[in-house]
Amino acid sequence: MGRILDAALATATVFGAQYFGREISPVEDGSTRRWYHHLNKPAFSPPAPVYAVVWTLLDGLLGWSGYRLLRAETSCKRTLALCLWAICVAGVAGFPFAVFRKRRLDAGLAICIGLVVTSGASICTAKKVDRCAAKLQIPFFVWLTFAVFVQEEVWRRN
């Protein structure tokens, strides 16, 4: 594919997953906001504005990583790296559905743990294809690892 098409595909995949995640979860619903606000959250849980900033940066890095993987030479390793990358992106959409629509804190924790494992595998696989693409996924992995601790505490307390 061409550079512009690859960039559009990677960007559309990442931001499409974010959009889809918001659409399938009632984040903006008043009762959901009240429910989430009243959950007993740990002191180290970031305030809402931090999530917006962090996810904007992470989405950009994931999109760039996906672009680099799409631009890499076609191979089985590249295909596997792209599949793992896509699973990570899809998992991002699954979290708000489980937590905000279904109000399943346990499922949210399971998704976070699954994303850490998948993200780690994605980094290791991408490293064999494009080292820069792998490095671009590291902040996502770090944030997910932190998210597991936050989500576990929220689940345990509620």
Automatic annotation (TrEMBL):
Gene3D superfamilies: TspO/MBR protein. GO terms for biological process: tetrapyrrole metabolic process. Keywords: Membrane, Transmembrane, Transmembrane helix. The chain crosses the membrane at residues 48-67, 79-101, 107-126. One of its GO terms (cellular component) is membrane. It is a multi-pass membrane protein. CDD domains: TSPO_MBR. It is found in: Membrane. Belongs to the TspO/BZRP family. This is Tryptophan-rich sensory protein.
